[in-house]
Design a protein that fits this description.
nine-stranded mixed β-sheet
């Protein structure tokens, strides 16, 4: 923190308390010229004197009062008095108790690692708080059997986070694409958001159950269309039905 900033704040605090310079420097026990040099920013008071002044001026929160943010104007790290004291203690321990210093290093490394993980978690939570998202079930694939309802071959593989946009409001769950029959629009490994519905319009892409097998296909005229010309279209029969509509793909 620049000396000028400290001096200006000290002077403002003194005047706020209704104290004269004489009252303050006599209380501290220094010369008037020394005290004045602090207030005009030519010098900074020693740490112990600075604390005395803060006590005299009834400063409860030193950090916020003096605008401490941990860095100097050039971006270098700025140590507060507690940090300086901690470093001095660490140096003393390193000199007189090397094993003690090793124990401190071990604890510091462990706590630093924990703090890193907590920081990441907090950043993720903050990201969620500041964005419109929600979680839905993700299934690796649909079951290939069942009638009248959607049956999955296992519990949800996991829950995934998706943007809670107007387009995704209708998404009930997500499934993975297996294979390349719907390329170049949908690729193997894509995640599809699915709206639960039994009816879609021709030209829409959906999930269909045909002869006990489930497919992701485009609905045509009495057939399911594969976008990849290497694959044949699949005829629909009276037992075929739609399990859902594909809303979007998450790459």
């Amino acid at each position: 923190m620049p000396a000028k900033s400290i001096g200006k704040t000290l002077k403002e605090l003194r005047l706020k308390c209704g104290l004269s310079q004489k009252q303050a420097y006599e209380y501290i026990g220094v010369a008037q010229s020394t005290f004045s040099s602090w207030e005009v920013g030519k010098a900074e008071p020693p740490n112990e004197v600075f604390l005395q002044l803060c006590d005299l001026y009834n400063v409860d929160d030193i950090l916020s009062t003096f605008g401490y943010d941990g860095y100097n104007e050039d971006g270098s790290i700025q140590l507060n008095m507690k940090e300086i004291s901690t470093i001095e203690k660490y140096r003393f321990i390193s000199e007189h108790s090397p094993d003690g210093a090793k124990n401190i290093d071990t604890i510091l490394d462990r706590e630093y690692s924990i703090a890193e993980q907590m920081k990441k978690q907090n950043e993720h939570i903050e990201k969620l708080d500041n964005s419109n998202t929600r979680f839905i079930n993700y299934y690796y694939r649909l079951a290939s059997a069942g009638t009248g309802q959607i049956l999955f071959d296992a519990p949800p593989t996991k829950r995934i986070e998706i943007p809670d946009t107007p387009e995704n409001k209708k998404a009930a769950y997500a499934i993975g694409v297996n294979g390349n029959s719907m390329e170049p629009v949908y690729h193997d490994g894509d995640t599809l958001l699915i709206e639960m519905t039994e009816e879609i319009q021709p030209g829409d892409t959906g999930i269909f159950l045909v002869n006990g097998e489930s497919y992701i296909k485009k609905l045509g005229d009495q057939e399911l269309i594969s976008l990849n010309p290497k694959y044949k279209n699949i005829p629909l029969d009276e037992d075929s039905y739609c399990l859902g509509k594909v809303l979007a793909a998450l790459k």
